[in-house]
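Exercise: predict the fold of this chain.
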Amino acid sequence: MAALFFLPIISFKPFIAAVVLFSKQTKMKQPVEMNTVSQILEKLRQKGYDNELSMTEDGHMKGNKIDKVYSPEELTIIKTYRFEGHSDPGDNAVIYILKDQEDQISFISDAYGMYSEQKGPGFDEFLKKIPTADRDMQELF
């Protein structure tokens, strides 16, 4: 009977070791603290990526720092940041980080839907036509 008593104790050691090893390997990573709109805009400014694009009256995008007018085909969205307000839908915002054909980085900031501050009716259609870069290559910061 003594052998039967010790056999389960001995057989639990590998099981306990496996559970400990598994729990160390599958430990969930702590969520990264969410950045604010102003933090993202400040990081862009620090890196020299402070060319904000806005819609022109004729349906193109124009930079505020780089005097160039873009069509959707000349841009690529390389990263998107979305921000949701806790209680006010008017606090919902999005920042699109874009690259042009000469690898100049620019951004578009806007609110969602009816709160959009972009001029001209073609803003949404313009955005839909901009190609999106491979999502695996989005490490900008």
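Check your answer against the key: The first strand starts at residue 53 and ends at 55.
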